[in-house]
Structure formats: C-alpha cells, structure tokens
Amino acid sequence: MATFTVRRGRRYRATITLDWLERWVDNETIAEKLHAAGFTEVNITGAGDTRQAAALWPKPDATAEMPSQVSEVSEIPARTRTRASRKA
Fold this sequence. Notes:
Layout: E1 3-6, E2 10-17, H1 27-37, E3 40-47, E4 50-57, E5 62-65, E6 70-76
Antiparallel strand pairs: 1-5, 2-4, 2-6, 3-4
C-alpha cells in the first residue's frame, strides 16, 4: 500500500475507485469514513464506481497508508481572497 502525508490546514482532493460491490455505497457513507479518519469540510461527488473527494486536514501533520480505493491524491491550492474594487 502507498503512503501519503497530510499537512495541517491544507485541503486535499482524491479520486475514489470502488469495486463492483462497493459502488452501491452512497456518498454520505464515504464522507463519514473520511470524517472518522480526521478530515473536515468533506465533499464527495460522483456516483457508481468513481467518486471525487475534497476535504480539509485540521490535525497535526500525519503519514498513513492509503486504502487501495484512493488514488490521484493532490493538494488543493488555497483560495486567495481579494477585495472587489468599486468604481466611484
């Protein structure tokens, strides 16, 4: 199994590929598993055997083995906040 390191305060996106039986699991159940692992602000999209997950890691940095269903993990760049300019 591959390992991956998550860093405090960073957001991550991953592809979740499910086998023929797992594909019947709803997105809420997948989100609950990510919450149980320590992620917050979890968002799951997609249906069937391929889902996309996005979540925030609020805890201290950690390294762990990834489940075989998780692939293509990447950090989501932080959003930059800009102030809208107004014309006078």
